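Hello K.,

You asked for the raw outputs rather than the summary table, so here they are, unedited. I folded two proteins back to back in the same session to keep the settings identical. This is the first:
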Amino acid sequence: MQQKIVVKVSMNGDKKTRKALKIAVSISGVESASFVGSDKDQIAVTGEGIDSVELTTLLRKKVGYTELVSVGPVEAKKDEPKPTVQIDPYQYYYQSYGVPYYYYVY
C-alpha cells in the first residue's frame, strides 16, 4: 500500500536542503520525494513500505532538527476521461516515385 510521509526539517542553506532530499530518496521503498509547504521546509515522501522512524532519525543525525508531521495513505487521483481524437493516418498520401534504377538487378 502506498503511503505518504511529511517531515518538517530545519534547513538553513542550499547544501542542507540537497543533503536532506538525498537522504530521503536513499531510503528503500521511496518512489518520490518533494518539498512542500509555504517555506519549502517540509519534505513529502511517497512510496511503499517506508519506515517513517528511520527517515526521521537519519534526517536528525545528518541534517538537524526534524519533526514528523503526518503519515497516511496516498490519495488516489481521479482521472478525468480525456476526449479521444480520431486521427486519419491516410490524410496525407504522397505519390512514391518507385525504386531507383540502380536497385534493379539484371
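The second followed immediately with the same parameters:
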Amino acid sequence: MLLATFKLCAGSSYRHMRNMKGLRHQAMLAIGQELNRRALGDPSGAWINQVRHRRSSLLGSRLEETLYSDQELAYIQQGEEAMQKALGILSNQEGWKKENQQENGDKVLSKMIPDVGKVFRLEVVVDQPLDRLYEELVERMEAMGEWNPNVKEIKVLQRIGKDTVITHELAAEAAGNLVGPRDFVSVRCAKRRGSTCVLAGMATQFGEMPEQKGVIRAEHGPTCMVLHPLAGSPSKTKLTWLLSIDLKGWLPKTIINQVLSQTQMEFAKHLRKHLESRPAAEARC
C-alpha cells in the first residue's frame, strides 16, 4: 500500500507523465523499478525514509520542481560517464612513468591509455583543508583566470542541477607561443562523498558557443581531480589531477608532452600562491 501510494504521488498524479518521452520517461520507469526492488527487499519500510531524505537522487528534478530536458539529462549522463572513466584510469596503478618531480614532492606521471591516448597525472599535497580547495576549484571556478596565468577565462555557460555545469575555457598561449590560443567547451561534474571530492569533465557540444575565429577548439578527454584529506593531517589535502587533452593542430608530440606536464606543475604552484595570498575568510566574502 505504501509503495502504491508513493508511486501515485511520484508519477501517476501528474498529467505530464503521460506525455513524457525519451530519457525522462526512461528515468521515471527505472525509478519505479528500483523502488519496487527495494520494497521487496526491505519489508520494514526503512526504504521510505531513504526516499524521503534523498528525494533528489531518486526522484530527481520532479520532486525539486525542476524538469530537465532530454539534452540536460544527456549532459548529466555525459559528466557522470567522464567521472567513471577517469576514476577507472586512476585506479589502475600499473604502467605509470615519471615525467617530472619537484623537490617539494610534486610529481607528474604519464601513461598511454587505449582509445584515449597519453594521459598525465599530477600528485601534490596542498597545505589547505579540502573545503578551501573545493571552494576555489568549484564554487569560484570562473575566477581561476585571476590567479592561473595559463587560463585567460573560464565562463559557466549553463548550470544543470547542483552537480553539473557546461563551461567555456580560453587557455593562454604556451611554450613561448609555439602553442597558440586554444579554447574548450566542456561538461563538468562535481561529486562529494564523505571526505572525498571528485571533479570530472570532458569535451561536449554546446550550440550557443560555436568555434571562435583565431582560436583552435581543443578537447578535454576524460579528466578529473580527486581531493581528500591527507592521512594523519586533515588540515592538508591530497590532490590528484588526471589530464587528458587533444590540443588539435599540427604539434609535435614532444611539444605537447612538455606543455601538458608543465601546465600541471605550474597549476600546483599558482594554486598554492593564490591560497596563501587569499585567506579563507576573505575567500568567502
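The chain has one domain: 76-277.

Happy to rerun anything if the numbers look odd on your end.

Regards,
P.
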